[in-house]
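debug: dumping io for the single-chain case to check the tokenizer round-trip. Nothing else runs in this session.
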Amino acid sequence: MRGGTVVTMTAIDVKDLTKVYGQVRAVDRLTFCVRPGQVTGFLGPNGAGKSTTMRLVLGLDRPTSGTATIGGRPFTRLEEPLRHVGALLDARAPHGSRTARGHLLALAASNRIPARRVEEVLELTGIAGAASRRVRTFSLGMRQRLGIAAALLGDPRVLLLDEPSNGLDPEGIIWIRELLRRLAREGRTVLVSSHLMGETASFADHLIILGRGRLLADTPTKDFIAARVKPRVRVRTTEPARLREVLLRHGHTPVESDGGRLLIDGVEIDAIGPLAAREGIVLLELAAEEATLEQAYLDLTAAVAEFTARAPQEA
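debug: decoded output
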């Protein structure tokens, strides 16, 4: 028991985690829990502390203070860790002179994983046809697939993947999206770091967002978007001037857009359609502009991005 609740044996539990490098606090008193049965997106601007946090969870760095455990234990105390935790942090890690199969067989032997599992993950990740090739001949996308194969080798209940879509072609991006969802449906704990907002929105059920080493958000994806982005309606009519006057009269502030359309912020379709109908105004288009994770993310992190570029007109 912890805090009156049962600790899930495959959860990633980070508590008061801090890492200081010289004068830089890369991670600053982080506390969060990544739970099984869902894909958790791990987001934040460059320098936010995501990679450092993952390294701390995997025992590759030692925390200045605080703890990071998996199923209640530090990663370094797990026997045959590949059977418990799979990780992809750097697709360039495998030695270039090894073949893909040789790399996976070495990992399997060190964790007492049957050799037949190597063939299974080669097939699963779509690189069985290149298993005898040297890793140095692989494209970035193929290296990513090899890294994912290594992460899945021990059939682990916990997965940490850093930018798994990096270098993948469109087919590969769809494949990794479906793979992540399937792993979560199987009850595994899946933490995925990414800079691709649109892609993250397509697979992440939950979000953990960092900024300058601190926790900014720990929330379901849908709730995060709904809380930070106002609804917007797009409308086109044969009588734009008259519709504008009606909207203003009812407290709405339309803004002209392309193609003669009007945009109305902070309102739902249900409020605009009946209003136009009562006035006898013919609508050619009436649609809700769906809020995006990118909009919500930028709204949250604008003040904490370490590196930002000027807008093109300012450059």
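debug: round-trip ok. The chain is about 30% helix and 25% strand.
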